[in-house]
Amino acid sequence: MNNILTIWQKEVKSYFVSPIAYALLTIYAIVSGFFSYVAVGYFLDRSIGAQAGRGGPMDVNEWVIRPVMMNVGVISLFLIPMITMRLFAEEKRSGTIELLITSPIRDYEIVLGKWLGALTMYACILSLTLVNLSVLFIFGSPDWRPVATSFLGMLLQGGCLLSIGGFISNTTKNQILAGAATFGVSLLMWTFDWFTGFKSDAWAKVLAYLSLTSHFEPFSKGVIDSKDVIFYVSVIALGLFLTTRSLESLRWRA
Amino acid sequence: MIKVEGVSKRYPGHTAVDNISFEVEKGQVVGFLGPNGAGKTTTMRILTCFMPPSSGTASVAGFDVMDQSMEVKRRIGYLPETPPLYPEMEVAEYLTFVGNLKGMGGNNLRKRVDEVSEKCNVGDVRNKLVSKLSKGYKQRVGLAQAIIHNPEVLILDEPTSGLDPKQILETRDLIKGLAGDHTIILSTHILPEVEQICERVVIISRGKLVATDSMENLTNRMRGSEVIGLTVEGQPESGVVQEKLERVAGVSRVILKLTQDSSCAFEIESLQGRNIRADLARAVVEAGWNLIELRPVSMSLEEVFLQLTATEVSA
Ligand SMILES: Nc1ncnc2c1ncn2[C@@H]1O[C@H](COP(=O)(O)OP(=O)(O)OP(=O)(O)O)[C@@H](O)[C@H]1O
Ligand SMILES: [Mg+2]
Prior knowledge:
The structure holds 2 protein chains of 2 kinds. Chain A is built from 11 helices and no strands.
């Protein structure tokens, strides 16, 4: 436990003393701010229309918060590879992995500590969205529950990609390669459910099940379905397990 | 304390370490020698549980590196070939982090960080970023992290590389100071260093063990063919003396080292296993010259090393 904490602390610090954290936070603030602005603008435009008699009453949750959260998911596709690419690749390149592995600390502690560090970084970035959305709470009274569940959903979904990204980073010394591969895999997992649009055989269903987006939907509506939670948690666990195994096998090949 | 039995490490298509066995007693300082690519780093990585051997077993303090790696790791301090440093940390922060990794904490660790900073001469850069340090300082910080938890066994891969002459001496003193309580294996390419601080030497070449012995025995053993230093007085013509010496039975080679006034110094190599000292002395005296000096010349470690690793290559 202490060991996990030690690694976690080191990871979080190393994000925040490097320019990476600030660059990511800034980029995210700008892009997500823009998305929020667009969503609110669109909402205002349509709600004036609604008052004029077109369509029914509109709901801030449905029209602003949900689209914003979905967009956040898209942004995180780009952010997550940047968070995970250095996770192991850098330690292997610089040789610090020798220190970690020859210290009396278990492989899973290294993996878990690093993943938690990455998750913390990701949560910090996500919380900027809460700042954006807080404006809505100041001037209106949207339902806070979908916001909370969306945040939880984002964290779980991010956790999956971070754990997969960590695994990929552990297979190479090259950060760029790790980042690019993580981006590719994330994008695929994001779009798996597109198959269901034109196919309905078993494969399409399996792929749709593996799609990260389809499991996020309920969260964005304020629903926590244990089915989805189990899915995310198992993907996270699988990623972490594979990372631990590849850390072990690294030594057989090293 | 350290026991290596039949350890091999094979990479696809080539064997880095080939069936090596040796033992190190508690408290000994052992020099690990071998030309580039001999397999020193590989052997050290096996001992520190960084990678398992392809075959064979190794144990540290009675614990197997494969089955009881946690116990082994707890007892080992390791300085890898490239010091494992995090550029974004300050020196004291880094040492504290390593201490934490080794299971230390609190006041105890804080005191220890001060101690090792002092010992390894990095006190003046405590609050500097590691990335801003010169190579030598990085090496010192690497050494400091290896001893932070006061481990029983120290494994140091080229600990003095990149250090200035003064610091090399200080590091050697530091290592000598640690000997006794600690068992130390260090690899190096500086042979005088081994002569100064190591009691035993393990020499490997192309993955194979070529010698493991105490310093004394090693240099003695190499004296199978004896080299004798001889100085003669009373004959200004060194050529005459040389001719005479060459005719003594059992002499394989006579090398003129120095002529000075009426004396000349030679180095004489005997044929394998022949004792020629008495014959040499008689020859000189019978010729009517004065025998000033007659002494065995021991081979330097450098010569031993070259000879051992060279025979291995031609074999
Ligand atoms: N990951 C690897 N894959 C394949 N071969 C390797 C690998 N690492 C080392 N080797 C090979 O193993 C052999 C031993 O290497 P090692 O680093 O142990 O040598 P060394 O004695 O430490 O040399 P040096 O004095 O240069 O440090 C070399 O021939 C090297 O090329
Ligand atoms: Mg080496």
